[in-house]
Design a protein that fits this description.
The chain is 5% helix and 36% strand. It is mainly beta and 148 residues long. It has a single domain, classed as Sandwich (Jelly Rolls). Strand 2 and strand 3 form a beta hairpin. The protein is globular.
Amino acid sequence: MSQLKTILAGLGLAAVTSLPVAAQDRFPDQMVRTPAENIPWQPLFPGVEAFALYGGLDQGVATAFIARTDPGQSMALPHTHSDGYWGFILAGNHQHWEMSEPDQGPILTAGSSWYQPADVPHADLCVGPEHCITLVVFEERADFIPVQ
């Protein structure tokens, strides 16, 4: 059982421990397009669905996915990752902050981005009133390590 699955099971949470990998490779040799209305969302955390563009959690490879978070829902409990990643807000009102910050930071709207260094506890919140759509890109491996 992966570290993520073990920790989440202990917390009474269920999650997809390996984002479903899209049919294409990281660098497909032909065009791939998925209209928004045809995105095959998969459960990731309660109130959060994801669509893997390539890679996957706990696969040890570069990973990119789009997350759709319900309004008022935290993307996940406070956590870290073994490698840093970029986040890009495509829609919605989102907050991303490090646990060492005095507050949850500014509201990030479409077009906003952040870089999250490795091993730094952080969290996310979809402020609402609409869903938050976020592109997450790990250039190295993607994992999820909950913190207390």
